[in-house]
Amino acid sequence: AQCRTRPTDLVFIVDSSRSVRPNEFDKVKIFVSQVIEALDVGPNTTRIGVINYASAVKNELSLRTHQTKTSLLQAVRKIEPLSTGTMTGLAIQFAINRAFSEGEGARVRSPEINKVAIVVTDGHPQDGVKDVSARARALGIEIFAIGVGRVDMHTLRQIASQPLDDHVDYVESYSVIEKLTKKFQEAFCVVSDLCATRDHDCQQLCVTTGASYACACEVGFILNSDGKTCSVCNGGAATDLIFLIDGSKSVRPENFELVKRFINQIVDSLEVSDKNTQVGLVQYSSSVKQEFPLGQYKNKKDIKTAVKKMTYMEKGTMTGQALKYLVDNSFAISSGARPGVPKVAIVFTDGRSQDYINDAAKKAKELGYKMFAVGVGNAIEDELKAIASEPVAEHYFYTADFRTINQIGKKLRTKICVGNWLYYYVKLSTDFQQREDNLKAENTVMINSELNCSTGELLHESDVGGESRPLLGLTFQSASV
């Protein structure tokens, strides 16, 4: 989903007093991460800071520290609870004096820039909050107050901005704080229905999702990586695809099941056969294990069954060794690979490699393999970038939480569309005007078919005006390659 926001300086003020158990503090970090995931993070859009407090205050992340969402999410994961008292007023004063200062990356106060603080607390403060909160609000800081468990509701109302119904939230325990995620994801959206106002850049379809929107494509098209434009993709194109999956002990059994679902989510989008996509699976930890080679299974059902049966290895993280195995074995003809067919690898990891990865990663890309790197949790951004193909930003992904890897799966489904795709205008035999600046023009359609590039022969039919029929008597103009 995409959400247009005004430039915002956003600071989370998080209570980690002794009443907040370590596993509960982890829930708060997941909540913070999920809110961040939906925001457009950058120096000119949303800047994020995090204050951690108990008896003292710790500036964990300043507004100027992290310029990318990936590094920001990784930094949030590393925050540790302080486990002492509850000086909420002191934390808010710190936000006024330090967190929202220009020295820490805050922008000059102006009507064009939002200043927002989200306070999360579970107890009774040991200091006053009323006056300091009023000073913060007077300085233009909009304050949301989230209370958990046995929190003092009167304190929350003293902290929060008006109207209180919009700025005070309560959850009965940290285990359900995530249910507030959507509210705060949408709180920063400027327009509630961008599709209705036509204030969007979707090439084909716009779908309203709460207070944000998502672009979509008509049948036969896929959404490009820019999230706005659409391209024809023959999902049945010949591709050899290998999943290289981290099975180290840090993943944990319950998350390994989510990884298997992630794999099968992508498999569902493929056309599996000897002539189209072949899938292989390799798991690694301290050693490397080929679960099944390319071409062993001829249909999606059998592949998905084999993935479900994969046993978790639960040892170390030898990503370099796994990449070398990929180069030396996975795409070999003896392992089922087909000569002349595009080779794609999806490397999934959740932590720092215990060996050197650069040489094997470089070799894979030199051999022409299309490399996607997916990192979760403690995965290292530099390692993901070293694995990923160019352009790197289009080939590596990161999320803080295993439960959100399905969102990465959706993106990958549109990217595993390899080969030299030709986009063609089809000019109908009429006198209607062709608008060449728009692939969705009134009398121009995109062919979802194969073209013999040497003869110009059209090999398949195309959807024209919602009906599938042979494209006869049409002229073809190459738009791009």
UniProtKB/TrEMBL annotation:
Key words of the record: Disulfide bond, EGF-like domain, Glycoprotein, Repeat, Secreted, Signal
GO terms, biological process: growth plate cartilage chondrocyte morphogenesis; regulation of bone mineralization
Superkingdom in the source lineage: Eukaryota
Keyword Secreted in record: yes
GO cellular component, one term: extracellular matrix
The protein's role, per its UniProt record: A major component of the extracellular matrix of non-articular cartilage. Binds to type 2 collagens and forms long concatenated protein networks as part of the extracellular matrix. Required for the network-like organization and bundling of collagen fibrils surrounding chondrocytes in the zones of maturation and hypertrophy. Required for mechanotransduction and adaption to mechanical loading in cartilage chondrocytes, resulting in an increase in expression of the extracellular matrix components ACAN and COL2A1. Acts as a moderator of angiogenesis in response to injury.
Organism per entry: Pseudonaja textilis (Eastern brown snake)
Designated name of the protein: Matrilin-1
Compartment list: Secreted
Annotated VWFA domain residues: 9-184, 240-412
